[in-house]
Structures are given as structure tokens and as C-alpha cells.
Design goal:
This is ABC transporter ATP-binding protein. By secondary structure, the protein is of the alpha+beta class. The chain folds into two domains: 3-224, 3-Layer(aba) Sandwich (Rossmann fold); 237-345, OB fold (Dihydrolipoamide Acetyltransferase, E2P), CATH 2.40.50.140. The protein is 24% helix and 34% strand. The chain has eight helices and 21 strands. The chain has helices spanning 43-51, 93-103, 108-121, 137-149, 167-184, 195-201, 219-224, 229-234, and strands at 3-14, 17-28, 32-36, 58-63, 66-67, 78-81, 155-159, 187-192, 204-209, 212-217, 239-242, 244-246, 249-252, 257-260, 269-272, 278-280, 288-298, 302-308, 314-320, 332-336, 343-345. Strands 6-7-8-3-9-10 form a six-stranded mixed sheet, sandwiched between helices. Helix 5 (167-184) links the parallel strand 7 (155-159) and strand 8. The longest helix has 18 residues, at 167-184. It is elongated and about 75 Å long. The mean pLDDT is 89.
């Protein structure tokens, strides 16, 4: 796919704080891209730089190969939907959606047609005369989305777009957001701290840490093969065990376990997802461990077990309901996993 937006060595400081550290990024036309990270990772700063609300200290920001870092926000074919939605309380839904069109000088008849189409796209036909206070949180979110889409941007920036919605509405709205992105053909860039949201919606995910991209790729690839301790822990809360590479694979003293598999000599830790670990009646050898259940928490589809190993480490184990009744606190258990599920980490 053709590259729409490219960031080259973007650096931004706020006083002594380095928010973005020579960050490089490319976003393709028609791509749904997620910027994922914790507080202070730089994701919101990057979004504001793309929107034009912040100026980088150094580096280049290119749209279709043209530098836009000095271009004001209103002159960019980019729209941003804010986490707060930023609707005008004194305006009707239709007038809120039409606001940008009027500022751009679009004729009244064409604006009315485009507003009606945008409201239909977000399933708010017939809501045009209402005021924001007469809408639910999910409906206000749709109005903000319609106001962005009515401008027909080539790139739409979404700042925690589902953050104010309850769990059930978040899932449904997420699917609708993905469908709208496909329908419009615009590139969407979403900032979120919610890993499930990023994995479910995005074509590619960039995990940010300390103003840099720790890992970038398709959601499944990043989840199943994290590159660093940070990514492994942040995305899916994998077990990360320290140790050293050995002839048999990887020895972890804190776990009291040998992890068998193709382990590179520079490996300093391994990651193992909780759902990849199985509780079995008995097993010995590499990729097995014996421990004691310290705690258990029912989560619906599974029960999360915290299992203390001989070396002192605690493994998180997701015991599926279909595998029978989970062990109780204080039970001695045997754990096993496949060699392919052990991910070597070099940093």
C-alpha cells in the first residue's frame, strides 16, 4: 500500500521531559493504525503533532511526501476526534456536524446533504434537531465521529475514542468504527491505552515506550511474539522470566525450570502467555514446572491462577472452563507448555 503519512526522526521535549525521541513511523492509505502505550509513552503527543496542535522540535512530518510540520491544523486534510467529543452544547446535532463545513465555506444545500449522509452513516437519522444534552454517551460519540467524517478527511485521528463508553457499548461501537473506516476508505490513527481495543480494531499496532516505538506490526504478531520485556508485559500481561541461554534452551533460576526450544545466545529472558500453560496430572522434564496455587480468580471464560514455582517466581496461568474445575488455593499442581510458546527476549 502507498504511504500516506511518514514521520522521520520526530523529537519533542516539554522542558526537561523528552516526549518523543527521534521517532520514525509510516502509515499507509486506508489503514487502521493504533498507537498503544501507557501514560507518558508519547502517543498523545504524536497524535497532536500529526494534527498540527504541537510542533516537533526536530524531524520531518510528510503527507504524500510533502512536509506539513509548519502547516496549520485547518489547512491539513486531517481531522481529529477528541476524547471529550468537544460538542457545542448550544448547537443542535446537525449544526454540530455542519460546523466544519460552514467554516470551510461549503454552500448550505451541499452541507445539508453531507450532514444527512454523515448522520445516516453513524445511525443517527432523525437526531439532527436534538441537543447534545439530550443524547446518551454513545450517541454523543457518534455525533463527534460524524462531525469528523463529514469533512471527508484522508486521515482521521481518534484520541481514546471508546474511553467514555461502558464495556458492552465499547465492543459494539468498536465494530461500527471499523466498518466506517472500511466504508470511507480514510486512514484512521487511534490512540489508546486499551490493549484489547488496539488488537481488535487495528491493522497494525505501534507499542510506544518512553517516546520510542518498542514494537510495530500486525496485532497477532506482536501479541504472540513480543520483542521486549516491556511489550510482553504490557500486551497481554505475559509471564516474563529471567535467566540465561543454555545448551538445552534457557535456564531460569527464579522459576526452577528449563525452557526447551530454539533460544538465541543473547537471550536474557523469555515470555510465556498465561493461556499457553496447561495444568496436567503429571509431567517431568523441560517445559514443565511444579508449583503451588497461591490464589485464583474466576474471570468468566477462565480462572486466573497464581502459581508459586520452586525458584520463587509466580506464574500467571489461565485455566479454561472447558478444562474442568480449576485447582484451589494451596493445591500442588504440575504445569506444562509447548516449546513454540516460549518467546525469547533480548531486551
Amino acid at each position: 500500500m502507498k504511504t500516506l503519512l511518514r514521520a522521520e526522526a520526530i523529537t519533542k521535549r516539554f522542558g526537561p521531559t523528552l516526549a518523543l525521541d527521534a521517532l520514525d513511523l509510516a502509515i499507509a492509505e486506508g489503514e487502521f493504525f493504533a498507537l498503544l502505550g501507557g501514560s507518558g509513552s508519547g502517543k498523545s503527543t504524536l497524535l497532536r503533532i500529526i494534527a498540527g496542535f504541537e510542533t516537533p522540535d526536530s524531524g520531518r512530518l510528510l503527507l504524500d511526501g510533502t512536509e506539513i510540520a509548519a502547516t496549520p491544523p485547518w489547512a491539513r486534510p486531517i481531522n481529529m476526534m477528541f476524547q471529550s467529543y468537544a460538542l457545542f452544547p448550544h448547537l443542535s446535532v446537525a449544526d454540530n456536524v455542519a460546523y466544519g463545513l460552514r467554516r470551510a465555506g461549503v454552500k448550505r444545500a451541499e452541507a445539508a446533504t453531507r450532514v444527512a449522509a454523515a448522520l445516516a452513516m453513524v445511525h443517527l437519522d432523525g437526531f439532527g434537531t436534538r441537543r447534545p444534552h439530550q443524547l446518551s454517551g454513545g450517541q454523543r460519540q457518534r455525533v463527534a465521529l460524524a462531525r469528523s467524517l463529514v469533512m471527508r478527511p484522508r486521515l482521521l485521528l481518534l484520541d481514546e475514542p471508546l474511553g467514555a463508553l461502558d464495556a458492552g457499548l465499547r465492543e459494539r461501537t468498536g465494530f461500527e468504527l471499523r466498518a466506517l473506516q472500511r466504508e470511507t476508505g480514510a486512514a484512521f490513527v487511534m490512540v489508546t491505552h486499551d490493549q484489547e481495543e488496539a488488537l481488535a480494531l487495528a491493522d497494525r499496532v505501534a507499542v510506544l515506550e518512553g517516546g520510542r516505538i518498542a514494537q510495530l506490526g500486525p496485532p497477532r504478531a506482536i501479541y504472540e511474539r513480543p520483542a521486549t520485556r516491556f511489550v510482553a508485559r504490557f500486551l497481554g500481561a505475559a509471564n516474563v522470566l529471567e535467566g540465561r541461554a543454555a545448551a538445552e534452551g534457557f535456564d531460569s533460576a527464579e522459576a526452577g525450570v528449563t525452557f526447551a526450544g530454539a533460544i538465541a545466545p543473547d537471550t536474557v529472558a523469555v515470555a510465556l502467555r498465561p493461556e499457553r500453560i496447561r495444568v496436567v496430572p503429571s509431567a517431568e522434564g523441560p517445559n514443565t514446572a511444579h508449583g503451588v496455587v497461591e490464589d485464583a480468580a474466576f474471570r468468566g471464560d477462565d480462572t486466573l491462577l497464581l502459581v508459586r514455582l520452586p525458584g520463587g517466581a509466580v506464574l500467571r496461568v489461565a485455566h479454561a472452563e472447558e478444562d474442568g474445575a480449576p485447582p484451589a488455593r494451596g493445591d500442588a499442581v504440575t504445569l506444562t507448555w509447548d516449546a513454540d510458546d516460549v518467546v525469547a527476549l533480548a531486551s
